[in-house]
Amino acid sequence: xKTSDKGVHVMHQFEGFRDRPYLCPxxxxxxxxxxxxxxxxxxxxxxRKEGYTGMIRKEYPLAPEHNRVWSKAxxxxxxxxxxxxxxxxxxxxAPGISGDQSLFDACVCLSYNIGLGNFQRSTxxxxxxxxxxxxxxxxxxxxxxxxxxxxxxxxxxxRKAEIALFME
Length: 168
What we know:
With 168 residues, the chain is mainly α. It has helices at 5-15, 72-93, 101-114, 116-121, 123-129, 134-142, 153-167, and strands at 18-23, 29-32, 35-36, 146-147, 150-151.
């Protein structure tokens, strides 16, 4: 399965587009439509805690070859390749959604934002695989509206858009 144009639109709408690398709110070097550039950076702590003297995320250096203006065409190719990884991952983790384009699109959109590892561990995925009610599945999306323990308005809007995509 492939993500529909509607699903891609929701991802693009909420990720935004940047042709220069930037530190996202999670302190990860990002470019294009929310593509993380350095996966090992995500393994670092967000903040320095007592006794920790190592590097934290915001101190991670941007690779010199990434510090440039990227072409939109180049970033579109990278997005399509990355999207394919999420599409395959969602189908592997929730095989029952094969054939349900709306739910597939919503799950790919969510996974693109939270990562496949989090999707794998999610109550949402469990609810999908147990074929629970549409309402219970929709509630599973809203469980991902917090960052750092705080509910974020932008994540609430995104989750509602994913639910709307799923309910079509």
